[in-house]
Amino acid sequence: MEIQSIDHIELFVEDAEGTAVGLRDHFGFAVAGRGGARTGLPGCRSVLLRQADITLLVTSATSPAHRAAEYVRRHGDGVGVIALRVDDAQAAFAETVGRGAVPVAPPETFGSGGDRVAFASVTAFGDVEHRFVSRGRPGGPFTPLIEETGCDRLGEGLFTEVDHFAVCVPAGTLEETVRRYEEIFGLRQIFEERIAVGAQAMYSKVVQSRSERLTLTLLEPDVSRAPGQIDRFVEAHDGAGVQHVAFLTDDILTAVSKCAERGVRFLATPRSYYEMLTPRLGPIGVPTEALRELNILADRDHSGVMLQIFTESRHRRGTFFYELIDRRGARTFGSSNIHALYEAVERQRASDPTGLD
Predict the structure, then answer these.
(1) DSSP letters along 169-211, please?
(2) CB count, 10 Å around CB of 135?
(3) How confident is the model at residue 342 (pLDDT cuts 50, 70, 90)?
(4) Model confidence band, residue 346 (pLDDT cutoffs 50, 70, 90)
(5) DSSP assignments along 81-143, one per residue
(6) Distances (CA, A) of 207 to 175, 178, 263
């Protein structure tokens, strides 16, 4: 089984329309279609959004029997499905179940010819599933169960694709989670580290598909240290889950400026961070003052420079947010910026512990 790319992400939320409006107005996604009982989607209401190679399906339950109902009750709004494009969804389902994956939804095919699409799902981590998707042709309909309205696939053109997912797992489960991804899904571990911030610490391991189109940064708290943000996520989320989704952009200065103008709130970074930036990294090709003005973080690895920023969490439990990342050759994940991120999250938590406006 070869994972070609991320086909789509499905968010399970309390209010699909409201969430979709926020993604459109704040982040420049284009609404591409809707589905529900009228289109053959039982027990739910869904809104399809697109921007470049990012496809989001935002779903809220209209029946307690739908999986989104229990997900939202237990976790609040969040990522319920990471859908993976493969050559043959049925074969991928059979292969991963044979390797130990737990089935969620058996293979189902819709349409025919170039409009054909097949879905099949297995468990990933916590209550998140991986949905295998195979399509008759690139750019074909999402599924006949979604009535598409037609849109500019680029949306606002702020983001190009999903760079990675950050996943928090309970203490003691990181090794097992990595092993499952290696043995069941064929991913490989490409990075690991232990990060200490003050009295807190965590372990991180990164797994990636051979196509390099699916990357998961897996985070586990170090329980030998004081409880920290990963512990709080696992407690508030009630188990493992996606902490944030990172959107890749070719121009982070423009993306951050436009999102901020539309009401997106980003985590603030202390001025002292920028005073040490040039001595730490050397020239990075972007004026330090421009980064300081927008609170953008910078890091460098052996391949190049990476610029990144994190949104404030507006989740009721403070457990989900987004990252914007601009890779200028760099292939790693900004390890030295974790300290700045942790400090910024702590400041937000102190000033707004509920995550609400």
Answers:
(1) --TT-HHHHHHHHHHHH--EEEEEEEEEETTEEEEEEEEE-TT
(2) 21
(3) low
(4) low
(5) EEEEE-S-HHHHHHHHHHTTPPEEEEEEEES-GGG-EEEEEEEEETTEEEEEEEESSTT--S-
(6) 11, 7, 33
Residues forming a β-bridge with 247: 162, 324
Q: Does domain 161-351 have CATH number 3.90.930.12?
A: no
- Closest CA relative to residue 166, chosen from 230, 244, 235, 238: 244
Task: Give the separation between CA 258 and CA 266, rounded to whole angstroms.
Answer: 12
Q: What gap in Å lies between CA 58 and CA 46, rounded to an integer?
A: 5
Q: Which of 244, 271, 210 is nearest to 334 (CA)?
A: 244
Q: Collapsing DSSP states into helix, strand and coil, what is residue 253?
A: helix
Q: Can you spell out the DSSP letters for 31-72?
A: EEEEESGGGT-TTEEEEEEEETTEEEEEEEESSTTSHHHHHH
The predicted-structure confidence for 191-207, as pLDDT tens digits, reads as follows 999 988 878 899 999 99
Buried b (16+ CB within 10 A) or exposed e, 240-270: bbbbbbbbbbeebbebbebbbeeebbbbebe
Tokens coding 163? 């760079």
The token duo for 15 is: 């209010």
CA 338 to chain centre: 17
Q: What is the pLDDT of residues 281-295, one digit of tens each?
A: 999 999 999 999 999
CATH number of 5-148: 3.10.180.10
What is the rounded distance in angstroms from the CA atom of residue 164 to the CA atom of residue 320? Answer: 14
pTM of the model: 0.94
DSSP 267-307: ----HHHHHTHHHHH---SS-HHHHHHHT-EEEEETTEEEE
Residue type, 296: I
pLDDT digits (tens, 9 = 90+) for 37-70: 999 999 999 999 999 999 999 999 999 999 999 9
Taking the domains of the chain in order of start, what are their residue ranges? 5-148, 161-351
| Crossing angle (nearest 10°) for helices 338-351 and 229-237 | 60
